[in-house]
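Escalated from tier 1: iron/sulfur cluster holo job.
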Amino acid sequence: MPENSHQSLADELREHLVYMSELGVHEVDAAVPMVPHREASTSVGKIDERVPASEIPEILSSKFKTNTEETPRMAPARGKRDLLGGTKLSDVTVPAESKRIAPKQEHRKEEPDPPAQEEEMESVESTLQNDSLETIRAEIGSDCSRCQLCEERTQVVNSVGSAKAQLMVIGEAPGADEDLKGEPFVGRAGKLLTKILESIGFERSDVFIGNINRCRPPQNRQPTLEESAMCKPFLLREIEVVNPKVIVVLGNTATKNLLETTTGITKLRGNFVEKFGVKVMPTFHPAYLLRDPRKKREVWEDMKKIRDFLESSND
Ligand code: SF4
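Tier 2 regenerated the structure:
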């Protein structure tokens, strides 16, 4: 091969390598048949002998294109080979004027259209601004069947209480008494909750009370993650509408679900956690207190912290 052809080949190859380097491809899979001609080794390092040297740019182009579509950086593969005989692509100097932006343009195509995204955000904000407890309740409906808990419930148990409540109480799901009456926290545990609230100066009617799931799980089992995921958005909207200063979340399951944590109630209780821009106090569920009355002391400590916080915030 004439000397000027070697030079031209080497230049072309270098240009392709620079191009690949800009896109993060630092090594090339040997499965690609690359350089063939023994003479070419003087310019481009140690090479294979299967493909005519004149095809190198085309091969590199097609290989590069394929890998760019999948991932911008070629994964280490069997039989990797360094095209420049030990010189990595990252070692090649990239002239400033050769910077290419084509791959970024490809990424942009996958992003949502900014005006469409803005419209969607405006629509969500508008919905939240115009939301009300009545709208939320109407949307849920009395015959909601969004999750499996609809199958054995008597009725949907919606939240109750003041839309201007400073204090919100959230449990896991209705029990048997609540399922029959259609109101949260009305059984024995509910009566104890009422007493606990009164101990820090709150009438039940001053507080907003609800559950993450609004239908009673069969045999009082824990709601599944899927069941909770279907119902929880309505509660989150209620938090947005009521905008309480403090949320008390009762029991392990509700605490983990609401705070999206795997940490248990025993570690979390007694300390405020900031969530949704609201102070959230995890504490034991009244049903647990009925089984182990010694835990009432801890709940009392937690409730005093809530009372003190609300008093100081109202000063
Ligand atoms: S638990 Fe919630 S989402 Fe599931 S059926 Fe009842 S109201 Fe609907």
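The first strand starts at residue 28 and ends at 29.
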